Amino acid sequence: MSVQEDKQVIKSARTFSYLFGYLPVAATNLAKFKKRKAGMSQQDYSRLIHSEPQKWASGIMKRTGSQVEVSGLEHLPEGPVLFVSNHEGNFDIPVLLSSIPKPFGFISKEEVKKFPIIPSYMEEMNCVFLDRTDRRSAFKSVTDTIEKLREGHSILIFPEGTRSKGQGLKEFKAGFMRIAKDAAVPVVPIAIEGTSRIMEDNNNQIRPARVTVQVLEPVTPEQLESAGVKAAQVVRDRIEQALDTIQ
Fold first, then answer.
1. Dihedral class, residue 81 (left if φ above 0, else alpha if ψ from -120 to 50, else beta)
2. pLDDT (tens digit, 9 = 90+) per residue, 37-64?
3. Could you tell me which residues are beta bridge partners of residue 128?
4. Sequence ranges of the domains in the chain
5. pLDDT in tens, 221-242
6. Which CATH architecture has domain 3-244?
7. CA-CA distance, 75 to 132, in Å (whole number)?
């Protein structure tokens, strides 16, 4: 094994050790947060809950040695939004949790519930769980997401459905447009590039990478309505154009 390969193995071990080693601390803090919930506004509690995953995600990214460049945070509006991002790699969620100051939940695979502690946090973050093998679960995930947005929570969705692993932007499943239109919230497109170089490109070993996150101008409910059946393509085009600008 070469020196470079040795470094990759060590970096991978440190990253995954932190990923799961932080869970006892997170569990203790979650119990404290829940006790404070009754005396807090929804907005303040969301910020409090978001602070812990943000620390966790920042710690993970630090251990990968990656450089994350974020732009467009000035585009974040007040109130609930549907974040719509391309999905390049497994590190998309840690990158976005550590980069986006606005609290949000996200749609996640049902299998995540098998992990300790993490699902409890995700429920408090207003994440939505999806069983892709069950049509009823897919329908419920849509209605649950709409309900959470109407309640004032922001949600992140990856409309490609699966990771592109750096192989170019895939087609967007149009179902996310129903969520945005029924909830009457803005869509905030996010273009993320470089996460696949952290792990997927390296046989699942961790390497430092340059990652860029671009928060794009919101697409208002009125603009979505005006675009009609082309609304999903409008959002995808904005993300694609942003990705094309990366050098």
1. beta
2. 988 999 999 999 999 999 999 999 999 9
3. 107
4. 3-244
5. 999 999 888 889 999 999 999 9
6. 3-Layer(aba) Sandwich (3.40)
7. 32
What's the angle, vertex CA 245, arms to CA 243 and CA 247, rounded to 5?
100
Query: What secondary structure does DSSP assign to the chain, as a single string?
Result: --HHHHHHHHHHHHHHHHHHHTHHHHHHHHHHHHHHGGGS-HHHHHHHHHHHHHHHHHHHHHHHT-EEEEE-GGGPPSS--EEEE----TTHHHHHHHH--S--EEEEEGGGGGSSSHHHHHHHTT-EEE-TT-HHHHHHHHHHHHHHHHTT--EEE-TT-S--TTS-PPPPPTHHHHHHHHHT--EEEEEEESGGGTTGGGTT-----EEEEEEPPPBPHHHHHHHGGGHHHHHHHHHHHHHHT--
Amino acid letter at 130? L
Angle between helices 231-244 and 175-183 (to 10 degrees): 110
State how far the Cα of 123 lies from the Cα of 117, in Å rounded to an integer: 10
pTM of the model: 0.90
Distance CA 180, CA 167 (A): 27
- Residue whose entry in the numeric block shows the structure tokens 């990705």: 243
Structural tokens at position 201: 């490109």
Chain centroid, CA 159 distance in Å: 12
| Nearest partner of 210 among 60, 18, 16, 65, judged by Cα | 65
